[in-house]
Design a protein that fits this description.
With 192 residues, this protein is mainly alpha-helical. The chain is built from nine helices and no strands.
Length: 192
Amino acid sequence: MSAIDTVLNTLIRVDGKILLLIQEYIRIPELSPWVVRFTKLGNMGAIWIVIAILLLIPRKTRRAGILAIVSLIGSFCLVNLFLKGYVNRVRPAEVVSGLNCLVTTTDASFPSGHAAAGFAAATAIYKSTRKWVGVPCVILAVLLSFSRLYVGAHYPSDVICGAIIGFLIGLIVFWLFGEKKYKRRARRARRR
């Protein structure tokens, strides 16, 4: 067994133990149906699409809405169309003995599409609009990501990697298409 296999097996064991701890100590039977409904808001980026469309309405937040949509498209292409099929990691309910998954899932586990979409859109929104709009979006992305662990649909490493990928996509989209003042400052700095 190579060192990489050892590290991956250790990661899978730790991921499984964390999910079992969440199931045993954090899951509350009365709260679970609500968390299942909440986590479904992230299916296919639905809640983020709605938020982006709402941001398109006022002129002041239109750029944030456009950047959120571009970030969601980037996240979908990279995570759902490429990485999930390439890595093809099985869902934790199929591997972790004793884990009860509260939702049905059909695609691969790695990385979390919910986390990637949430952090891509939230980062783009946070960077391109006022904080009173951006901060709740970041909080929503964190809560939706945690809900994927709560329901047993993803390993913690799936969610963490999905969040990092989404964050980077949001930053790249903002850097490429974002704030005009930001680009003007960068051009002035290059001329000096």
